Amino acid sequence: MKQQSTRSILLGAAFLMATSAIGPGFLTQTTHFTDQLAASFGFVILISIFIDIGAQLNIWRIIAISERPAQDIANRLLPGLGIVLSILIVAGGLAFNIGNIAGAGLGTNVLFGVSPEMGALFSGIVAVAVFLVREAGKVMDRFAQIAGFTMIALTIFVMFSANPPVGEAVTKTFVPETIDFLAIITLVGGTVGGYITFAGGHRLLDAGVKGKESLGHVTKSSVSAIGIASIMRIFLFLATLGVVSSGIALDPSNPPASVFQAAAGNVGYKIFGIIMWAAAVTSVVGAAYTSVSFIRSFSKTIDRNHKWFIVGFIVVSTAVFATVGKPVKVLILVGSLNGLILPIALSVMLIAAYKTKIVGDYKHPLWLTIFGAVIVVAMSYMGIMSLIEGLPQLF
């Protein structure tokens, strides 16, 4: 594999994972918690970055060294476990994709004044088009890169317009006034929860980046992915902090939109529309690709026609939002289940790392195992709490 081609694949996988994480929920979470915690939210971001890296390094390395997708690793560990994991991923991916389509509709509504439903339909067509071209993998990588760079550049512009108290932000990132553990878990779930952490890992596998000789590349790509998502989070945090510090109250119904509008007026509001649309559509692409990657190995028919299954996944997500307008109550439960996917998947990977029938003579670093185990315990607790809170809303 040529060096330039390898670099492009590694960057593409990193951006696919990062832009999958940077969706409508990412924008809302960041502005909401900054509004609540002010400069101390910097500490939450710092801790969540370390946890994100620990989770992602473990998962991507085991996928690469085993040369198998996560569901096949799970099935080799315990027959049927891969099917359970795939059901969770696909159900959670579909639920969040409906939310992503809704976010894309909101973005086009801000930009062009069309109804969210019409905007969602247009956005669904754009996402489908990515997978209908001959070199779909390369187009997906490039689409994620361009969208990612655009979102970061526009957010930097708005951040400078907001004139945030950078000194205070730096100080309280290391010496916070308050520590909010719920915010930390929420950010981790929004960055590497559900299908998101597998997006880049499966993309590298799909592109042939696997085996012991590729571990250096895999490590670099996985850390880069977290870095890209974190850069976006930091700039959005600073932009919001600038607005909040000036005494402006955010609109609780749409916190990120009010940040951009307060910082840069009508231009800022339009910039929000571009960022919301780009964040949503790239998340649609990432969710569809990753969800289908979890069922490809179960059937030769699905594997041969995986592009059409991805297209179908996007079409169903778009149709549900366009016809229903809002996800049904059952999606609340599915969303809560999504919080359990990371600890289940990470547990599987950590156990698999010590099974010679899966990883051969590979020795997994002890510090990564311990780091991963701590993440499993913390995320399991919060995932169960989220599920308990979600169940009553179904009745």
From TrEMBL:
The chain crosses the membrane at residues 37-57, 77-98, 110-131, 143-162, 182-205, 226-249, 269-295, 307-324, 330-354, 366-388. It holds the Pfam family Nramp. It is found in: Membrane. GO terms for biological process: iron ion transmembrane transport. It is a multi-pass membrane protein. The keyword Plastid does not apply. Coiled coil: none annotated. GO terms for cellular component: plasma membrane. InterPro entries: NRAMP_fam (IPR001046). Keywords: Membrane, Transmembrane, Transmembrane helix. GO terms for molecular function: cadmium ion transmembrane transporter activity; manganese ion transmembrane transporter activity. Its main location: membrane. It comes from the Bacteria. PANTHER family: SOLUTE CARRIER PROTEIN FAMILY 11 MEMBER, TRANSPORTER PROTEIN. This is Divalent metal cation transporter.
